[in-house]
Design a protein that fits this description.
With 230 residues, the protein is of the alpha/beta class. It is built from eight helices and eleven strands. The strands form two sheets. A nine-stranded mixed beta sheet has the order 2-1-3-4-11-10-9-6-7. A two-stranded antiparallel sheet has the order 5-8. A hairpin with a 2-residue loop joins strand 10 (184-194) and strand 11 (197-202). The protein is globular. The chain starts with a strand and ends with a helix. The mean pLDDT is 98.
Length: 230
């Protein structure tokens, strides 16, 4: 039986408990023994991490200590898979450039609605947008067979490097109330090989409702199976 470690916490606005609970039955049905932790302290436990085949992380912002960071990095390099969505992986541990290097992309912003339409809550950042599957994504096990799809939620603008393999993108248009002058395309789903390990990041997933979109859920679930140590 393979072992999955679910690590959740950080900013509660992304509902890390409710979000991760969506996927626990799937993991168990796929034969994983699932161990859930509410802090990242477990990353510093070398014995636990060596026995872990998959880490599912949902920790927005927060911080990570030296031992925890290098425990996670070392485990992935040795073959442990790492999967997450939205801020739970792409906006984690802003204090750590070494974590950033591990996952390969960092949330920068989510552009908002036209100012006169904003009401002062999180929906100010909900925009209709398209997730477009790339040519690579049409062949990759995580996204093969999926069509482009529409969401109305936070659209992540991501800073990233060339070591990511982009399976899907999303484009931020120009607007008269925004300061950029041409459309910006960001990765929406990517994979990354790190040592012997595999990483999958999906930027959709602001709420459990978004995670239950059929395409988003398929990407996360397929990502878990693809990333997990065989």
């Amino acid at each position: 039986m393979r072992r999955a470690l679910v690590v959740r916490g950080g900013w509660d606005g992304h509902q890390p408990v409710a979000a991760t609970e969506l996927f626990l039955p799937f993991l168990r049905a796929q034969g994983f023994e699932v161990d859930v932790h509410e802090t990242n302290e477990v990353y510093a436990d070398a014995e636990v991490m060596a026995a872990t085949d998959l880490v599912v992380q949902s920790v927005t912002m927060s911080s990570i200590g030296h031992d925890e960071l290098w425990g996670l990095r070392g485990a992935v390099e040795a073959g442990t898979g790492l999967v997450g969505w939205h801020g739970g992986i792409a906006d984690s541990y802003r204090n750590s450039s070494d974590y950033l290097q591990l996952v390969g992309g960092q949330f920068a912003t989510h552009p908002g609605k036209e100012p006169s339409l904003r009401v002062g809550d999180e929906t100010d950042n909900y925009l209709p947008y398209t997730v477009e599957i790339t040519d690579l994504g049409r062949e990759h096990p995580v996204t093969a067979g999926l069509d482009d799809f529409e969401l109305e939620s936070e659209q992540y603008w991501v800073l990233h490097d060339d070591l990511v393999d982009v399976l899907a993108t999303t484009t931020h248009p120009t607007q008269p109330y925004h300061p950029w002058h041409r459309p910006i395309t960001s990765p929406a789903v990517w994979t990354r090989h790190w040592g012997k390990g595999r990483i999958v990041v999906a930027t959709p997933g602001h709420t459990p409702e978004v995670l239950q979109h059929p395409s988003v859920r398929a990407i996360v679930e397929r990502g878990m199976l693809w990333a997990a140590r065989a």
